[in-house]
Amino acid sequence: MILVHAYVWSQPEHRDAYRAGLRALQESTLASDEGCLDYRFWESVTEPGAFVCVEAWTDRAALDAHLAAPHHTAGSAALDPYRARPADVRVYEAHPTSL
User: Domain segments of the chain: what residues?
Assistant: First the structure.
């Protein structure tokens, strides 16, 4: 399984528009992308406009297909005018384990 933590930031005055764009990206990803196990955005409780997308993919091929998908490239481009700074994306290989 591949896990992704994508940290993204909106300009303060465009937070609502940015959040709407993230919601649209989440909906299109969950509806369209095979191999997507989970894809959710969360906003920081201490830093307004700071979001993280927590993603889970069956494998790297599924993630790569998502990154190349038209809905992802268009959705990401639509967010560009509202970004405060570049994304910080971290990709991990994960193996289930018990606590």
Answer: 2-93
Decide if 30 contacts 23 (C-beta within 8 A): no
Is domain 2-93 classified as CATH 3.40.30.10?
A: no
Spell out the per-residue pLDDT of the chain, length 99, in tens.
Answer: 999 999 999 999 999 999 999 999 999 999 999 999 999 999 999 999 999 999 999 999 999 999 999 999 999 999 999 999 999 999 999 988 998
The answer for residues whose C-beta is within 8 angstroms of residue 24's C-beta and 6 or more apart is: 75, 78
